[in-house]
């Protein structure tokens, strides 16, 4: 619902999947996309992923607070109290070890053409 609201607001936030094509369309060569899956929270068994998950949990909780209020009050006409309840529910789900949530980070690199 957040991405849909951002589209309706005219500022779509879920655009990472388009970055590679945008670079190709802009004329970059040898465009490569690397996608890394990161756990949200410290539930992973791998020590490195567990540490990344701790930081990602903090990042996601902060993101909820920065993106949700304006879009949900302006686009979906939620009250302040409704937004607060929604955000607490989302943050609770992020903290859940049972859900084992994962997010993806995309790193796109390319080379500027020699003649440019």
UniProtKB/TrEMBL annotation:
GO biological process, alphabetically ordered: methylation
GO molecular function, one term: methyltransferase activity
SUPFAM superfamilies: S-adenosyl-L-methionine-dependent methyltransferases (SSF53335)
Listed InterPro entries: SAM-dependent_MTases_sf
Keywords carried by this UniProt record: Methyltransferase, Transferase
Name of this protein: Methyltransferase
Species assigned in the record: Fusarium napiforme
